[in-house]
Write a structure and sequence with these properties.
heterodimer, A: Nucleotidyltransferase, domain 5, five-stranded mixed beta sheet, two-stranded antiparallel ribbon, 4 helices, 8 strands, B: alpha/beta, six-stranded mixed beta sheet, 5 helices, elongated
């Protein structure tokens, strides 16, 4: 004959449940608010620099100190050129895409030689697209974590540089 | 002899008295969503609103926009602070003139307005800040004319709006 099961064992087992209803109401309020204010694409700006008159005069008058030279990147539809005053440092034909990594390398080497130099000129053809301008400016401004020449001014390419 | 449970107890075991909705998985989803949204939340507020037909270029810049006069250039229209300018951009592109007359007139009026305000309230000084929101496909010859005109009208603190790359 079997024993009668004990009362202790047959007690209904209570399911211990955390009361998450208030948490849920908080989520229901938070999620639509965050979804509405979320910016999935952040907008930033690229500053343009205009050379001031004093700087321009200084560049004309003094020719001695190391950073007083004009660094220019010229972009045409089929050619990318890097110029230090009149000296051509890099001239690349543009085939499928811009050779921006080569430009960045060359600029990094220049930055090693002239750490105080911060300004550069971007000479552009009229047909160059805005997107390309920004890409080239990115390459000129920063390489990895290193700041290269962030003070970029835009200029029209008036004479043929080869 | 086995102990037989009563009929009443068997009936109670079959029919649970309280129906509990299982929301654990929904809660998991909510938690993930909340973390993602809080991460992408920006407390700076939106200074620039980008129209749907304007595709900004991408850039690695980390600089956040400052308030200023907003010039929007789409492929066919030009807007200054949300006001549509009556300017044919194709004509501007082909013209030999560097300055855009109508834009110049409008901007000079704006500059005068700002200067008048800063005379009354010196704290609100005219900084000449301008943010250009340009479509990624506009050519430099158009960009150049717009920037030049803005510069001539007194907006010399120019910056270009871009989408930040991750």
């Amino acid at each position: 004959m079997a024993f009668k099961p004990s009362h202790r064992r047959s007690r209904p087992s209570y399911i211990l449940d955390l009361n998450i209803a208030p948490l849920l109401s908080l989520f229901v309020a938070l999620i639509p608010m965050l979804l509405l204010t979320a910016m999935f694409q952040k907008v930033g700006i690229v500053n343009l620099y205009l050379p001031t008159l004093e700087e321009a005069l200084l560049q004309e008058n003094t020719g001695g100190t190391s950073k007083d030279f004009t660094l220019a990147v010229s972009v045409t539809l089929n050619r990318l050129t890097l110029l230090k005053d009149q000296e051509v440092l890099l001239a690349e034909d543009i085939g499928d895409g811009l050779a921006l990594d080569m430009l960045a390398e060359e600029l990094a080497a220049l930055k090693d030689r002239f750490p105080d130099k911060r300004d550069a000129v971007l000479l552009l053809d009229g047909e160059i697209l805005y997107e390309t301008i920004i890409d080239v400016m990115d390459a000129m401004r920063i390489a990895g974590d290193r700041e290269l020449f962030p003070e970029i001014s835009l200029a029209d390419r008036v004479r043929e540089v080869n | 002899m086995a102990y037989a449970p009563t009929k009443r107890r068997a009936a109670r075991a079959r029919k649970p008295s309280l129906l509990i909705l299982n929301i654990t998985s929904m809660l998991d989803m909510f938690t993930i969503l909340i973390i993602f949204l809080l991460k992408s939340y920006s407390a700076e507020g939106i200074i620039l609103t980008i129209p749907a037909d304007l595709h900004l270029p991408q850039s690695t810049t980390q600089t956040s926009p400052d308030p200023g006069l907003v010039v929007e250039v789409t492929k066919s229209t030009l807007l200054v602070d949300g006001k549509l300018m009556n300017i044919d951009l194709n004509e501007v592109q082909e013209s030999e003139q560097l300055i855009i007359g109508e834009l110049y007139d409008y901007l000079t009026a704006k500059t005068r307005q700002y200067e008048a305000i800063s005379r009354i309230n010196p704290e609100a000084g005219f900084t000449g800040r301008l943010v250009l929101e340009g479509d990624r496909e506009i050519p430099f010859k158009l960009l150049k004319k717009i920037l030049y005109t803005c510069g001539q009208a007194g907006f010399i603190n120019q910056s270009l709006a871009v989408f930040q790359k991750e």
